[in-house]
Hints:
The chain has about 170 residues and is of the alpha/beta class. It is built from six helices and seven strands. Strands 2-1-5-4-3-6-7 form a seven-stranded mixed β-sheet. The longest helix has 22 residues, at about 10-35. The relative contact order is 0.20.
Amino acid sequence: xxxxxxxxxxxxxxxxxxxxxxxxxxxxxxxxxxxxxxxxxxxxxxxxxxxxxxxxxxxxxxxxxxxxxxxxxxxxxxxxxxxxxxxxxxxxxxxxxxxxxxxxxxxxxxxxxxxxxxxxxxxxxxxxxxxxxxxxxxxxxxxxxxxxxxxxxxxxxxxxxxxxxxxxxx
Length: 170
């Protein structure tokens, strides 16, 4: 009697969801557990001369991203940052200490960046966030001051929106 083979066909989207669902569940649980600690108590100095104390922003989510004008990934994420800011998310983009302030100012004007741009001339803020040296590096801070997401590399606006929904529900 000849052997019959049974061919199983899987829908690619089903396979994607089987692997994606546990990852999303892990992200949500991690966000709810606030396992990345509290954000440091720092004050940002913006290119417009404004001082922003991070603790003054408690009560709402805040995105802090470290970047440089010569970083391709940083420039790539600008449209997502602009879109998130237009949807009401407070964003502070911290220029790395080695980035000349005139480059930062020129780029922010050229791209008409509406979110806060801060200078970190002494690298104190980068040190306070765990010695940031890979850019872009982004931290999403919950309304209670807990860091719920730390990402190295360009952000994905949809990922940030998922975290924001989780924060609103939690």
